[in-house]
């Protein structure tokens, strides 16, 4: 069970389908870590920066996903897969990102196949 | 054929005789009339475009690519058709005009695509570069009426519009509502997201502020943890160092006891021996301190 702030508010959320903050946004700690990867070691990131980037990246994910979801709706499919995301990036004008992501997806699938064919041995 | 010749001559005559500012709307009107006519006339106008310079042809292909993307969004397509569109884009990259024309013939276009087609024909007839921005703005102005209902329905003051770098150059013209230029490929998606965010705003009005923490129990645990200098949590090693502090306190107390013993004035040899015994007892520990007191008594 999760200890939420205010049991009554969680009940209201479950009843009326309100989307909570933690469901709408990425975790702020993960956003900060990703931002830190590209910065020099002694750089610091303000909380305002993390919150702003949190809003931006969460909106971008919803933006691309809604485009992919619209395509799946038209094709009468229920599952949004990686190809749909790559197509959505291309149709929205992010061609520079769609191509590397296709290569990443291909390599990821090959890795999954290798893992399935060669399960790790347990001593 | 005569009608085509007359309309073409009308276009060129309006271009030559009309003033600079007024020429554009007359072109737009005539182009719109041409657009309403049959497809063969638009094909003939495209054939007229072909003799243009190489640069213009590149612009032509680029606009067709945008049009393909918008048509992909507007029409319901199955997966093989998507593959066809991709191959079409490849052919566009190779700048094969014939396949482009054939593909355009095969498609059924909506209001949006028609407005884009009308806008595409504008930049090519005028040789001067100054005409293009104004024509581009006219194209955007044409796009606005088609979406006016959608924009009015979708837009809400609370929602934050997603603005990206525009492909087309904005113009500094005096309008009541200056339009915001976005990538044409993203236009529909932006409107969709605005509607969704407006719905979320309606639902999430009571819960808007950011919560400082999500779980009460974790918050209480964090409050109970030991903190060092600067407010950071102490790690395991620092906690071990903090365990030595009671030992230091005991040492300070023993030192205080020694001071108390040294304070006593003793001038006899027997007492001096007793003092030595007291010192030895102090070195061993506090448990045997009482015995020297007994010897002293």
Automatic annotation (TrEMBL), chain A:
Residues 25-89 form the Transcription factor CBF/NF-Y/archaeal histone domain. InterPro entries: CBFA_NFYB_domain (IPR003958), Histone-fold (IPR009072), Transc_fact_NFYB/HAP3 (IPR027113), Transcrpt_fac_NFYB/HAP3_CS (IPR003956). It is found in: Nucleus. PROSITE patterns: NFYB_HAP3. The keyword Phosphoprotein does not apply. GO terms for cellular component: CCAAT-binding factor complex. GO terms for biological process: abscisic acid-activated signaling pathway; regulation of transcription by RNA polymerase II. Keywords: Abscisic acid signaling pathway, Activator, DNA-binding, Nucleus, Transcription, Transcription regulation. Its main location: nucleus. It comes from the Eukaryota. GO terms for molecular function: DNA-binding transcription activator activity, RNA polymerase II-specific; DNA-binding transcription factor activity, RNA polymerase II-specific; protein heterodimerization activity; sequence-specific DNA binding. Belongs to the NFYB/HAP3 subunit family. This is Transcription factor CBF/NF-Y/archaeal histone domain-containing protein. It comes from Glycine max. The gene is LOC100794902.
TrEMBL record, chain B:
Pfam families: CBFB_NFYA. It comes from the Eukaryota. It is found in: Nucleus. PROSITE patterns: NFYA_HAP2_1 (PS00686), NFYA_HAP2_2 (PS51152). One of its GO terms (molecular function) is DNA-binding transcription factor activity, RNA polymerase II-specific. Keywords: Activator, DNA-binding, Nucleus, Transcription, Transcription regulation. Its main location: nucleus. One of its GO terms (cellular component) is CCAAT-binding factor complex. One of its GO terms (biological process) is regulation of transcription by RNA polymerase II. Residues 65-87, 277-297 are annotated as: Disordered. The keyword Cytoplasm does not apply. Gene3D superfamilies: 6.10.250.2430. The keyword Transcription applies. SMART domains: CBF. Heterotrimeric transcription factor composed of three components, NF-YA, NF-YB and NF-YC. NF-YB and NF-YC must interact and dimerize for NF-YA association and DNA binding. Component of the sequence-specific heterotrimeric transcription factor (NF-Y) which specifically recognizes a 5'-CCAAT-3' box motif found in the promoters of its target genes. Belongs to the NFYA/HAP2 subunit family. PANTHER family: TRANSCRIPTION FACTOR NF-Y ALPHA-RELATED. This is Nuclear transcription factor Y subunit. It comes from Glycine max. The lineage of its organism: Eukaryota, Viridiplantae, Streptophyta, Embryophyta, Tracheophyta. The gene is NF-YA15.
């Amino acid at each position: 069970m999760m200890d939420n702030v205010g049991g009554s508010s969680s009940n209201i959320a479950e009843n009326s389908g309100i989307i909570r903050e933690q469901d709408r946004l990425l975790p702020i700690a993960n956003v900060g870590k990703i931002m830190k990867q590209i910065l020099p070691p002694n750089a610091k990131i303000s909380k305002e920066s993390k919150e702003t980037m949190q809003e931006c990246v969460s909106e971008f994910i919803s933006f691309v996903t809604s485009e992919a979801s619209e395509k799946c709706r038209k094709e009468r499919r229920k599952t949004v897969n990686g190809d749909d995301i790559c197509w959505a990036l291309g149709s929205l004008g992010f061609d520079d990102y769609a191509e590397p992501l296709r290569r990443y997806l291909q390599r990821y699938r090959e890795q999954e196949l290798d893992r399935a064919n060669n399960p790790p041995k347990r001593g | 054929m005569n009608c085509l010749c007359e309309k073409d001559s009308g276009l060129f005559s309006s271009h030559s005789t009309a003033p600079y500012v007024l020429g554009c709307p007359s072109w737009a009107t005539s182009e719109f009339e041409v657009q309403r006519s049959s497809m063969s006339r638009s094909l003939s106008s495209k054939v007229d475009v072909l003799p243009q310079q190489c640069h213009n042809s590149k612009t032509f292909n680029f606009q067709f690519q945008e049009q393909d993307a918008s048509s992909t969004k507007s029409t319901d397509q199955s997966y093989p058709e998507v593959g066809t569109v991709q191959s079409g884009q490849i052919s566009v990259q190779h700048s094969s005009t014939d396949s482009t024309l054939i593909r355009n013939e095969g498609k059924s276009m909506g209001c949006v695509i028609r407005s884009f087609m009308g806008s595409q024909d504008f930049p090519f007839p005028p040789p001067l570069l100054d005409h293009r921005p104004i024509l581009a703005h006219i194209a955007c102005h044409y796009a606005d009426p088609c979406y006016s209902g959608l924009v009015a329905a979708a837009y809400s003051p609370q929602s934050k519009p997603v603005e990206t770098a525009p492909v087309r150059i904005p113009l500094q013209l005096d309008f009541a509502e200056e339009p915001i230029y976005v990538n044409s490929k993203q236009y529909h998606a932006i409107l969709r997201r605005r509607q969704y965010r407006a719905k979320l705003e309606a639902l999430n009005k009571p819960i808007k502020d950011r919560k400082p923490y999500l779980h009460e129990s974790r918050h209480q645990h964090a409050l109970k943890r030991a903190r060092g200098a600067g407010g950071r949590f102490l790690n395991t090693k620092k906690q071990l160092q903090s365990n030595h502090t009671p030992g230091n306190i005991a040492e300070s107390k023993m030192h205080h006891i020694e001071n108390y013993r040294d304070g006593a004035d003793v001038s006899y040899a027997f007492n001096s021996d007793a003092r030595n015994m007291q010192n030895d007892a102090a070195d061993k520990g506090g448990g045997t301190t009482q015995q020297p007191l007994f010897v002293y008594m």
